[in-house]
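Dear support,

I submitted the protein below through the web form. The confirmation email said the job was done, but the results page showed an empty box. After a refresh the structure appeared. I'm attaching both so you can tell me whether what I see now is the final result or a partial one.
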Amino acid sequence: MELFDSLFLGLQVAVEPQNLLYCLFGVLIGTAIGVLPGIGPIPTVALLLPFTFGLEPATAFIMLAGIFYGAQYGGSTTAILVNVPGETSSVVTCIDGHQMAKKGRAGHALAIAALSSFFAGTVATIVIALLALPLAALALKFTAVEYFSLLVLGLIAAVVLAHGSVAKALAMIVLGLILGIVGIDVSSGASRMTFGIPNLADGLDFVPVAMGLFGLGEIIANLERSPERRVVAQKVGSLMPSWADLRQAFPAMARGTAIGSFLGVLPGGGAALPPFTAYALEKKFAKDPSRFGHGAIEGVAGPEAANNAGAQTSFIPLLTLGIPSNALMALMIGALMMHGIQPGPQIMTEQPALVWGLIASMWTGNLMLLVINLPMIGIWISMLKIPYRLMFPAIVLFCCIGAYGISNSMFNVWLMLGCAAIGYFFIKVGVEPAPLLLGLVLGPQLEENFRRAMLLADGDVTVFVTSPISAVILAIVALLLIAMFSPKIAAKREEALVE
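What the results page shows now:
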């Protein structure tokens, strides 16, 4: 009964006129940035964070979440019609989706992508609702000891599943943790790495750092890429898939949803892992794998279902444990703190309207996407004709206004521009900035929980292994570390990531 009561509360919040409006606003922005190659949901959420200041927390989160899962829908449009993924998670859809478009079946491919995303979004919303209560009940048994171990697990797991070099990802986490302790120590009152700059006394503001690293840094890098986008010459055609198409695609949708729901929860899974895994699985299960790469409808249905399910279930660790599973969830934690809400296991009991309103809004948002996406396909295609060089000045202007508006301080504008240069440098040298953001967000929580744990245990560090829950979590951390530095497993990891 508690589940139904909570869902009813969430629906009441989600269908409030203001929340419906901002949900629509979020999914429209999400679709637009998904359509436009080079602007992903992470830069967009980072850039829009300051503009959510004046909103109610539930409204702000409904809009930000809409941007995230809206981008999964929009990304498939460019993948199918232009053979350029609008978003990382749509890379796999290019393979068979574009081949379908070249054969004059673009409408069918777009419809199957939208239906798969809607099906996966609906199932993922149910999964979140079913898992939220038991996980939140478990989380309430956590003390500072268990929470510290859980944060360590989150950081290490993010490295294992992240793309690229393990050493670089570890270095970025350490750098993020160091940046997280800048400012005045609340216990001793001592200044830490402030270099006498008064603006650093309260620590590095999370929003300008995220806007610079993920927003402007990524956009500067995109200016160097080719602006050429060739929309497929054939007409989009009928959007109504045949019964045979639906029958062929449904098992792939179901498998993709299951894979996405599971992988979305894992820390560091990112946007690319669920669709790639779903595609590999579909190819393995197919009676005739040679059809893949030449317009197989399962090659569109499975990955599209997986990326949308993964996007939504990645909210589970955030809402139940207060742990971000990827860089975008780290941004969401930053947004929670910006609105004066302390992330953690207590959030479900202290902010039920926010949590259940967000969960319920995912279903209304997915329904909006299904209704608005297919009829508006012409508008989305015409957006591809906007030259990127014309959008850049407008984005920079909005960023500067947003960064200044956080605390009416030019320091934040300079901080954002400095972080943009660093973010661009990271892209050029092949370093992912996402682990840095996780370290920056989780660093202060890690320190606070370590101190509390030491106070509880009178300075006895063995408390982390004598507590059964903490011991199990740390054992998993140890296994992950051994796996990371095992040459055989490291080679397999590289092979899997390359594939």
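Response: this is the final, complete result; the empty box was a page-load delay. The two ends are 45 Å apart (CA to CA).
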